[in-house]
Write a structure and sequence with these properties.
Layout: H1 2-13, H2 19-36, H3 47-64
Length: 65
C-alpha cells in the first residue's frame, strides 16, 4: 500500500514545495482510493458504492424479517 502511494503520488507529482502540498496530495489520494477507484473483486465498483449497497441490503432484510 505504501509503495503504491509513493509511486503514484510522491514520485510522479513531485518535487514538492511544502509539507502542506504533500499533505493535500495525500488526502486527495486517500479519498480516491477509498471512494472512487474501481475494485475488481467486488464487481468493478468503488468501495463506497459497494458499502452503501451492502447496508441497503441489510436494511431491506431487516424490514422483511
Amino acid at each position: 500500500m505504501i509503495g503504491l502511494f509513493k509511486t503514484k503520488v510522491i514520485h510522479w507529482r513531485g518535487p514538492w514545495r511544502s509539507f502542506e502540498a504533500v499533505e493535500l496530495a495525500t488526502l486527495e489520494w486517500v479519498d480516491w482510493f477509498n471512494t472512487r477507484r474501481l475494485l475488481e473483486p467486488i464487481g468493478n465498483v468503488p468501495p463506497a458504492e459497494a458499502e452503501a449497497h451492502y447496508y441497503a441490503q441489510i436494511e431491506a432484510q431487516a424490514w422483511a424479517a
